[in-house]
Design brief:
Number of strands: 9
Number of helices: 9
CATH superfamily of the largest domain: GAF domain
CATH class of the largest domain: Alpha Beta
Radius of gyration: 20 Å
CATH architecture of the largest domain: 2-Layer Sandwich
Strand content: 15-25%
Helix content: 40-55%
CATH topology of the largest domain: Beta-Lactamase
Number of domains: 2
Structural class: alpha+beta
Shape: globular
């Protein structure tokens, strides 16, 4: 729906206000139909899409047939599923967005200095999206590809960026969901989660250990411009192995902070 003065944005940056006369409801619904498909719902009937999008079956079917005509969905006559053409939408962002291109040489310097994988991540409705990366090839369950989306409470970048959002927005986000566990160490207690956000906001960087993977550690710093506005987070994701937390922070944090400072002057 169009935003109003009382709407709180949930993405990394505030959404611009939109007048009702400029709102195209059909575009909103078409995007909602695409977003109805996910890991738990890879194939859906028109009725199921309608239920997930708040549309009548006949309306959902028309949207699906249009998307099929455009090549974004396929069907066997009963169920529908997304096609690889949907990836074009995300690729258009990666190929046209300015920030990932600016960040790439800085990520390269970080990864060359510490021999770890460095990422640029942005926050989108409580999820982290990785939009740039550089580093050595390494077999890791938590090695993220470009465009990967991860719930924010299990990543250093996600925790840090959530800590920098308005408290009322974070509380509203928490009220709508539980924090799923991925390992025995995943923080699922909302009070503990909020305490971690307070700590990371105060210290200016984030840390995540064994939250998504038992052998995974992440360290993140905010990416700001010269006005102090947040554009994302630079992070390193690495195996824990036998390195202590203190040693990892001492080794990685200065390289990330130097990269963030260099980017601050050009974004």
């Amino acid at each position: 729906m169009p935003t109003t003065d009382n709407d709180a944005p949930s993405s990394a940056l505030p959404a611009p206000k939109l007048l009702a006369r400029d709102w195209i409801a059909g575009l909103e619904r078409g995007i909602a139909v695409i977003e109805a498909f996910d890991e738990e719902h890879p194939r859906l009937t028109a009725s199921q899409v309608g239920e997930r999008c708040g549309l009548a079956r006949t309306a959902a079917r028309r949207y699906l047939l249009t998307l099929e005509h455009l090549g974004f969905v396929a069907t066997d006559g009963k169920q529908y599923w997304l096609t690889p053409r949907v990836l074009r939408l995300g690729q258009r962002y990666l190929s046209s967005a300015r920030l990932p291109k600016l960040a790439q040489p800085f990520l390269q310097r970080v990864s060359a200095a510490i021999q770890e994988i460095a990422y640029l991540a942005v926050l989108d409705e409580g999820e982290i999206v990785y939009v740039a990366r550089n580093g050595p090839s390494r077999v890791m369950n938590s090695g993220f590809v470009l465009g990967a989306r991860v719930v924010s409470h299990v990543t250093a970048a996600g925790l840090l960026l959530m800590s920098l959002r308005p408290p009322e927005e974070v509380r509203a986000w928490l009220a709508e969901r539980e924090l799923p566990a991925f390992t025995p160490y995943t923080v699922t207690d909302k009070a503990v989660f909020l305490e971690r956000l307070t700590t990371f906001k105060r210290q200016g960087w984030g840390l995540s250990e064994r939250q998504l993977d038992l052998d995974c550690r992440g360290i993140a710093v905010p990416l700001r411009d010269n006005k102090g506005d947040i554009h994302g987070a630079l992070s390193v994701v690495m195996p824990i192995q036998h390195e202590t937390t203190a040693a990892a922070v001492q080794r990685v944090l200065p390289a990330l902070q130097m990269a963030a400072q260099g980017l601050r002057d050009i974004i």
